[in-house]
Amino acid sequence: MYPRAFHYHRAGSLKEAATMLAQLGDDAKLLAGGQSLIPLMKLRFANPAHLVDLNFTSGTSYIKRDNGTLRFGALTRHAEIEASVVVAKIPILHDCAAGIADVQVRNRGTIGGSLAEADPSGDWATVLFTLSTEVRCLGTNGERTVSLTDFIKDAYTTALAHDELVSEVAVKMPAEGSGGAYLAFKRSAPVYPTASAAVQFTMDDDVCKDVAIALGCVGLAPIRAEEAERALRGRPLTEKTIAGAVDAARAAADPQSDMRGSADYKRTLVGALVKRAIEIALRRARGEQVEVSHIYA
Amino acid sequence: MPDNAMPDRIEKVPIQLKVNGKSYSRTVEPRKLLVELLREDLDLTGTHVGCDTTYCGACTVLMNGAAVKSCTMFAVQADGTEILTVEGLEKERRASPHPKSLWRLLRIAMRVLYAGAHALCFTVIVPEPATERKRNAQGDCGKHLPLYRISEYSEGNS
Fold it and tell me: What is the ipTM for the molecules in this complex?
């Protein structure tokens, strides 16, 4: 399949890319990893007249730890995050990076591209909703920082202005005694998940000091299950409190029926994923090493 | 841009890349996919187009040592890279048929297995029948290997 013909522009830096966007107007799109955009162009759902390629910029792919913040360059590939020793210390990030699509897609796809696309079925936004995350946006008028919750506006809609792009994703390192898990349910490796759940705990002995729960693929944007969090925060984690949180998470989901399953099915699924993610996150918060991968049907 | 409008004049882009150890310079239209450059311009038809929608992995090649789907990359993006296709793997195996190199070949195959891309495993480890190769080179038949069809139906892609 051939996409519509387009003009190709190779940016030497992110700043140059922003300038190109401003000059080329609404018919220009950025090409990062291309693992969503290129299929969309081949199916002719996206028909940009101009593509600005970011893959030849230098110094845009990195993972840096500074003062309790992890900084990801926008062009950092999922595979690089998967292999990172620093990221391995925050298991929920590793779960996400190692589970996205298949190895070929992870070798190309980028964290900045994933957030900027804001696909409701994407993995990164759901996971990063449970951590304190800021997105740096670079435009022709300079740089600004937007919290991820403000950055994702709706399905495929972000706070980015037309001449702006994501330059960096900054994630606050969780406190000591934290543990998290991300579980996505997929029908096969390369497809988007049917539903996903991210849980991040900070424990104080057996009492839940803080918790963040986010649900993916069951709404137009990732959903923070705040009622579910309230059911756990400040309480000892027992079977009963966890069951209450799972019920609340199910109620928070707003799924659509589609080829991946009915709305009822997804709601049930998301409850099961939250329950399992809570159990794994809890074991990790207690210092246990637990390997998880995305779950396949 | 409206679906049926075409930009006035598309500037072709010069690229240089190494495929299976050999250097190539070509000038390509930006929308040309890497798999089409390999199959149509460089006549390396061992790499197959499978699903053409970034699912199956039949078109996987190694770019600077990393597995990528050549149907989901424009050829212009491969400028300055080194590509290894199934033909290159075959040459590597033939050139040094001792356990070490065989192990290397298997390691690449394993990477593909890990991705669940059954199709490519067949293209890597099962020699393509001569008739199929001939038909593919002429580009006048379905691009799937019969073996691939089996995996396509068993994958349950959505």
Answer: 0.94
pTM: predicted TM-score of the whole model, two decimal places? 0.86
The tens digit of pLDDT for each residue in A75-115 reads: 999 999 999 999 999 999 999 999 999 999 999 999 999 99
The verdict on A217 touching B (C-beta cutoff 8 Å) is no
Q: What are phi and psi of B74, to 5 degrees?
A: -80, 150
- Residue B60: list chain A partners with CB under 8 A: 104
Burial B76-95 (b: 16+ CB within 10 A, else e): bbbbebbbbbbbbbeebeee
**A1 in B contact zone (CB under 8 Å):** yes
Mapped onto helix, strand or coil, the DSSP state of residue B26 is strand
Say how far apart CA A107 and CA B63 lie, in whole Å. Answer: 10
Which strands form A178-186's sheet, in the order they lie side by side? A223-224, A207-216, A195-204, A178-186, A295-296
Distance CA A147, CA A168 (A): 12
Structure tokens at B15: 């690229």
